[in-house]
From TrEMBL:
GO terms for molecular function: protein O-acetylglucosaminyltransferase activity. It comes from Corallococcus macrosporus DSM 14697. This is Tetratricopeptide repeat protein. InterPro entries: OGT, TPR-like_helical_dom_sf, TPR_rpt. Keywords: Signal, TPR repeat. PANTHER family: UDP-N-ACETYLGLUCOSAMINE--PEPTIDE N-ACETYLGLUCOSAMINYLTRANSFERASE 110 KDA SUBUNIT. Residues 817-838 are annotated as: Disordered.
Amino acid sequence: MRRSPRHPRSRRLTPALALLTTLCGPPALAQYRPPPMSEAQRLVHDGESAQVAASAASASGDKKEAEEKYRKALALFEQALTAEPGNVTAAAGLGASANALNDWQRTVDRVQPVLTANPAELNLAYPVSVALFKLRRYPEAVPLMEQVATADKAEHLIVHYYLASYYLYVQQGDAAATRLKRYLALRPPALAPNDFQIHELLGRAHVLRRDAAQARASFQQAQAGRPESPSVQFGLAQVLELEGKLVEARKLLEGVTTRFPRAGDAREKLARLYLGAGDVAKADAQAQALVKLGSSPAAHLLLGDVRFAQKNAAAAEAEYRKVLQLQPGLVLGQMAVGKALQAQGRHEEAIQFLEGAVRAGANSLELWANLGSVNRRAGRFQRAVEVHRRVVELAPRQALGYVLLGADHFATGQWDQAIEDYANALQVEPEHAGAKLWLARALAHRARDRAGAGRLEDAVRDLRRAYDLERAAPMARRLGAALLETKAYADARKVLEQGVTLPGATWRDSLLLGYARLATHDAQAALEAFTRAGTQTEEPDEQAETSVGAALAEVELGQVDAAVQRLTAAGPSRAAAQVAGANLPRVLVRRALARLESGDAEAAERDLDLVDKLGTGNRKELVKLAQFVRGLARAEAGRHAEASAAIARSLKPAQPWAWPNTRALATAFVLYKKGQVPAARRQLTAAAKKPMPGQPKWLTAMTGALHRREAALAYNAGKLKVAEKAFKAALAGSPDDAQLQHNLACVDWRKGRTSDAVEAWRRLEPSVPVAALNLGIDAQERRKDAGEAVDAWRRYLAGGTGPRMAQVREWKDRLQSLHGLAEPAAGSPADATVEETP
């Protein structure tokens, strides 16, 4: 065969390409056939097909067809699960089909065992949790739903709604708000028109959270979707109540009940607001209207509360029992019946009723708490403690049980145990107001017992802690009184000054403050407090107590006469009489000392005689002090021997009120009064070696008095040189003393320095009346000027005081009768007169 010149190799290339194609192509495959399904798998496959058809029928609105298909699917899945008990797909399909047919119990019975074997399978947990929720088996349903909700899948959307509903039911606002927000985030757009329902529930959750702003925003969003919804209006009323706008809340609900007469929740809330405002008549009208809408447990519970507010416990009991007829086992109803029985004094019946509820299976915190409290009121304290310990076991992280146990121990005076209980309550709920209040009061009671047993420091510690917990006037009063008892006067004053500013402060708080100020040496502020206390009461007994306190302040202010008058007429109060009786002798001794300082020894003796009459009781120190003052009074009266004896007795043994050198000072005073100046000076010098605080001024004054006395005695004895020296020594200590200057001028006159003396007398006459007497003597005796003498004596007599008034008047009259020419009769003055100064 001839080769083509144009394709010399074409015949060789074709077989090569065919071979290459064969080698590079895919391998030849055998026809695939799936393995034959098991009987269970075939049933599951058919069940799923029936399920799809049921869903399609339901979407098209053919409910009958959908139900038939779901029943077929349910039968198929059930057969599959029977054939293969652990088949997860069959169990999930059975649960979905049974739930679609509302056959909740079947889901639980057939699917839950498979879920127990496969706890992580959400396809099983989802239908089982929904079925349990529908069967109201919440303790089992909620944990499963929470497990499903963590997956955050759109196909499990209804779980968030159910969980939120449950959290609202158990009053857990935060958890409910979280679930509802996730629902809104996951829900498909097709469901958006129903968001108003979710916003309404979200508003209720925020009300539980007490977040008024968020609650108002949620209800307003719900209102935008359904403007005339009575439940939304009810929610807005709750927001107003939360904001404290109770009048606005009532007005809003009044409008709702008018526009929507069958709005039961609004009527119930309105009635509750009326009850809170004390308008029982309006509350009754709303409760009656609510009962007419339907004989519901809530309606009869409300009507029972109205009857209870009307003080008709028997009628309230009847309504509460209707609640239990309509809903047996309702805890609120059981507790309400127990409350009504207690109000009628039927404590034992109340106990039996609540015990019966417990035996019937009721196991709520409220029921146990109420049962224990009824036992306590009935005097069955041991049973109350047992029951309330059960409350602690049920809710160890709540303060309720501990507070109730504290009340049980408080009622029996077991203060240590009560304090421990309330402290435990504050450990779990640090801001629990009731626990703080009753812990403070238990501490106050224990402090009272400790004070009675002489444990004042322990009592003060308890009261300080109590005052920190309860900043109230009564607690400040207790702490202040205890601090006064322990002589912590500064602390007592601080506490009581706070106490008088607190609400509820009374006259007694001001009274104690007066004593605290008195103890801190602020007599003027004390007097103000006592005066204020007197204005805070109109009771004679109480005013008498404040008057006695004011008297003690007046003593410290030197108003001794006013204080004695108050203490003498203490008033009808026994307490005031006791305080007056205890203090009047002391005040009289104080006044006796004041009178001695003014030179009125007779009045001082009268005060001391009254002290003897009143008696000083067992106060030995006051007895000694009265003896001491009497010794000083006797010295003033010139009874020097008696004075020395009384002073010696008063200072033996040594007294707390006396200084170490008091004996020497008193002896110096007696010697001074006797005119024994050198001996008095020696005693004074010895006492001045170690002067006590406040004594230097007195020592100086006493030294000056000794100089004056020495000068007067020397002058009268004609020892003018000694007198001059003594007067000058006295003037060195008191250079501005006009009396000393006058007396020194008398020495000058007798020593012949008459011009200097007359000049001094004329200068001093306005302040020293006796200077006019001496000017008259000089005019008569030295200058023989009867007219000037008469004028001088007339000026002296015009002063109206002085021991020589009668004698000077006689001199003046005689000179006038003689026209100033005759010689003075016997007894006429012959020398300048020196008056001794005190």
